Model the fold of this input.
Amino acid sequence: MDCWITLNFFVTRECVEFPKPNPEPYRLALSKLDLPGASCVAIEDTITGSKSALGAGLQLIAVTKQQVERARLTAVDNIVENLQQAKQLLSDWI
Done:
């Protein structure tokens, strides 16, 4: 099942006082969407983005082939190598 939401906003570094790895960017987006973090999934490729997403209470899929980055992502339960694998993991959750 494919599910898409069209967004009418962007959250950029200029929108927040504390950018990633602080959770503020994700919290701002969740506030604009009026959604709880636990009902959303972030897809990130770095420890910086992952810390931000997890700090905001989101579920997380990390996508990277880089061994150095994979070694840094110790708090992440779901690490895949490409977006196709992330899509499969998402469909398994639905």
Notes: The chain has four helices and three strands.
